[in-house]
């Protein structure tokens, strides 16, 4: 139970709450005494009863009480039976005349009938009383639990009220006048809520910007790595170029190569050449009378051997299948070109 702090001054409602709590705690209620007596009773010795295992179960208690009542009824009937037999035997063996006639039997019969009627009425009344007690006990138990919980709640609320008053007194002492009014406090709270909402929006924007910056940084790092690789390749190429520039043989070799190419073109009348793919070569030659022809050469990628040779664009048409077959066997590409050009020039 909560022990409230006694204030110097109390409101009447608080006084009544404390009084009700104290009255309920000090009240000598039968329901509490019966519960304590039942809890203090030792059922461990009742080995033939279910109460020894679980005495707090109402169903087990009811079944055990019903069994005891049945046993007592049988014991009572057995006692009455033995008592009647004993009395009957004593009357039979007694030397005195019992003096019992038909009128006495009628009186006893009527007396027994009246007693049975009264006993039956008393049993019915007792059963009704038991039923009322059972129903009222449930109501009393609920009412007691409600009163107990209400008093506890009242004591808790009372303590909270007193603590709130004490805290309010301390706040007033710590923050003397002038203080904010209710409207000013509400306006200040609304302004703080608006500021917090704006701060949340700003935080969301900054978070988005941070994510974007992280993405940009990742992309920048990837670009830097790519540029590093490209720079390394360029530096290697620059080193090779410098070596070539430092070597004096290359200019002469280049001039000789250019002169050889020009001589070859002039001798064979080669006007243009192209490589559409890695294994394809197209050669364009000039023929007499201003005619032209284009020869397509296709090589095998792995062995560099001639695989296909055909004329794809020519002003003069000839059959070169036999020539291609002969020179393909020996992989004689220059001889094939010379023979094709000779036939084309002869036909033109």
Automatic annotation (TrEMBL):
The keyword Coiled coil applies. One of its GO terms (cellular component) is kinetochore. The keyword Kinase does not apply. One of its GO terms (biological process) is attachment of mitotic spindle microtubules to kinetochore. Residues 101-128, 189-244 form a coiled coil. Keywords: Coiled coil. Residues 71-144 form the Kinetochore protein Sos7 coiled-coil domain. This is Kinetochore protein Sos7 coiled-coil domain-containing protein.
